[in-house]
Amino acid sequence: MLSFVERHVVASILGAVLLAFLVYETSVRFFAYSGDAYVATDVIFIAPEVSGPLAKVVVGDDAPVAAGAVLAEIEREPFALAVAAAEAQVTLAAERIRLAEAAIDESTAMVSAARASLDNARRQQTRSESLSQTGDISAEALDMVRRDAVVAAADLQKAESLAAVAQTLVTVRRAEQATAAQVLAKANYELSRTRIMSPVKGRVAPLTVRTGDYATAGKPLAAVVSDLDWHIVAAVDERHLARLKPGQSVLFTIGSDPWRPHWGTVRSISPGIARSAGEDGALPYVPLSTDWIRLPRRFPVLIDIGDLPARERLYRGADARVLIWF
């Protein structure tokens, strides 16, 4: 009798295990479940573009901010002084251009005068050489006229050289003005960057800086959790990949509001993953092991969560569970 009961119990257990296996294998044809999921959105780490002491920190921890809202301000005085100095250089460069252009006008007049003197000297030389043929002018006077023509030619060459130098100087002064204008533009840009603003709508993560701290260019001083792209990232078993498609319905719950189901849709399926944690590249890595079991390969699936962010306050990194219908 005992042997009969034992055989039936063993058979019942084996039958139950086999039935459970068949039910599971059948179910994966219709839906995929993942408990390895979390709520996600963009986190923007905000770093200043200029360095300096923080004159004030406008926001506090967990404060809601709009896109373009000021988070903090760096002391503006040094940058305002740099702008004033750059403006003075632009003004000085413009004055130097004016003086260089005046020098061009002066050198042009000198060239005209020297050319007139040369023309006159050459006419005198021509007449004197004609008179020397008839003996109406002495050789000494002829030499003097010729010398005057040579001197006039040299004066013209000198005047033309000075005019060329003046023209080159104007070019140099204009280059200096362009450089000064660029320095001014940079100074104005840096002054504008003393106000550190949020690029997106969201909430400020806990701050680690206070008024008076020194902000270093390129070093993050605040993080904003964006409200623009809330979604769920679920690690889904690779056996489901052939049946996963964007737009499929998803039933999910989130850890911050357990036991209340919500509907979403599959946004995208990762086309690849990294095979090891140290692998270089942009592909995501999904760990295979837990504390007690090695898991199959899983691929990140992004899930849109509809209007849930407008109805409830969400928390980046909160756990989620998803059921995807094929």
From TrEMBL:
<feature type="transmembrane region" description="Helical">
    <location>
        <begin position="7"/>
        <end position="24"/>
    </location>
</feature>
<dbReference type="InterPro" id="IPR050739">
    <property type="entry name" value="MFP"/>
</dbReference>
<dbReference type="GO" id="GO:0016020">
    <property type="term" value="C:membrane"/>
</dbReference>
<dbReference type="InterPro" id="IPR058625">
    <property type="entry name" value="MdtA-like_BSH"/>
</dbReference>
<protein>
    <submittedName>
        <fullName>HlyD-family protein</fullName>
    </submittedName>
</protein>
<keyword id="KW-0812">Transmembrane</keyword>
<keyword id="KW-0472">Membrane</keyword>
<feature type="domain" description="p-hydroxybenzoic acid efflux pump subunit AaeA-like beta-barrel">
    <location>
        <begin position="231"/>
        <end position="324"/>
    </location>
</feature>
<dbReference type="Pfam" id="PF25917">
    <property type="entry name" value="BSH_RND"/>
</dbReference>
<feature type="domain" description="Multidrug resistance protein MdtA-like barrel-sandwich hybrid">
    <location>
        <begin position="46"/>
        <end position="225"/>
    </location>
</feature>
<keyword id="KW-1133">Transmembrane helix</keyword>
<dbReference type="Pfam" id="PF25963">
    <property type="entry name" value="Beta-barrel_AAEA"/>
</dbReference>
<dbReference type="InterPro" id="IPR058634">
    <property type="entry name" value="AaeA-lik-b-barrel"/>
</dbReference>
